[in-house]
Write a structure and sequence with these properties.
By secondary structure, the chain is α/β, with parallel strands linked by helices. A hairpin with a 5-residue loop joins β8 (144-147) and β9 (153-157). It has helices at 29-39, 52-60, 75-85, 106-118, 134-138, 165-170, 196-203, 209-214, 219-223; strands at residues 4-9, 23-24, 27-28, 44-49, 64-67, 93-97, 124-130, 144-147, 153-157, 186-195, 228-232.
Length: 251
């Protein structure tokens, strides 16, 4: 199985400017992400950025950089520019690993690529993991995903989803335990796999209101009637780094 990994990395995060260059155990965060992609067996690992500071650091530790425009609204859009610039064929399997996931298990990267390889009719794949903490269900920074019997995504949301009417209507959050809930909850893991041709197609899809409302780029794919395969991750990934305070868990 051949696949490439592209890591979108921008400097200007509103909550954490310069995040890809933050040091974790003496290495910039972006280097940890590149190392996880290499461990996964990717044939090529490319950092896609619009910032020379990030590019300089990435080149210094020996990774490949592709410079992109600074007006991309999502990582997938940035990846589309890379695929066009480097002229990848439409059947190339591409895994989008977020630049703020320094310790994502390499097995998860492999799993997404393998799911695409094994399901030739699926244009896009991602992962979820069972939620074990009630607080995560109500945390808008923890994205939830619902799937059907074919492991196809039905919806992604920052809200508590599915809404357990009996439990949520009659109890406060502090009085709810996971054992009370009648449905399993899946946390979406922000890793995507797709074929290069579909990424290019994504760029031409108009943004949907749902995508804007939830601030979740994958909803554009569902809105336009395409399938996203969601498998349960073989290994539990740690939460990504959203704020400077999140760094403390990795030091």
């Amino acid at each position: 199985m051949n696949f490439i990994v592209i890591i979108p990395a921008r400097y200007g995060s509103s909550r954490f400017p310069g995040k890809p260059l933050a040091l974790i155990k003496g290495k910039p965060m972006i280097q940890h992400v590149v190392e996880r992609a290499r461990e996964a067996g990717a044939q090529k690992v490319i950092v896609a950025t619009d910032d020379e500071r990030i590019a300089t650091v990435v080149k210094a530790f020996g990774a490949e950089v592709c410079m992109t425009r600074n007006d991309h609204e999502s990582g997938t859009s940035r990846i589309a520019e890379v695929l066009e610039t480097l002229n990848y064929t439409d059947d190339t399997i591409v895994v989008n690993v977020q630049g703020d996931e320094p310790f994502i298990p390499a097995t998860n990267i492999q799993q997404v690529a393998q799911n695409l390889h094994d399901n030739s009719h699926i244009p896009m794949a991602t992962l979820g993991f069972p939620i074990s903490d009630v607080d995560d269900i109500f945390n808008p920074n923890v994205v939830k995903v619902i799937t059907n019997s074919n492991k196809h995504a039905m919806y992604f949301s920052r809200a508590a989803m599915p809404f357990d009417r009996d439990e949520f209507s009659n109890k406060s959050v502090d009085n709810i335990s996971m054992s009370d809930l009648s449905s399993a909850y899946l946390r979406h893991i922000g890793i995507y796999g797709y074929r290069a041709g579909f990424v290019k197609q994504y760029r031409s899809m108009p943004a949907s209101q749902l995508e804007k409302t939830e601030s979740l780029e994958q909803l554009r794919v569902l809105w336009h009637g395409h399938v996203i395969h969601v498998d349960v991750a073989k290994n539990a990934p740690p939460h990504g780094v959203d704020t400077p305070d999140d760094l403390q868990q990795f030091q």
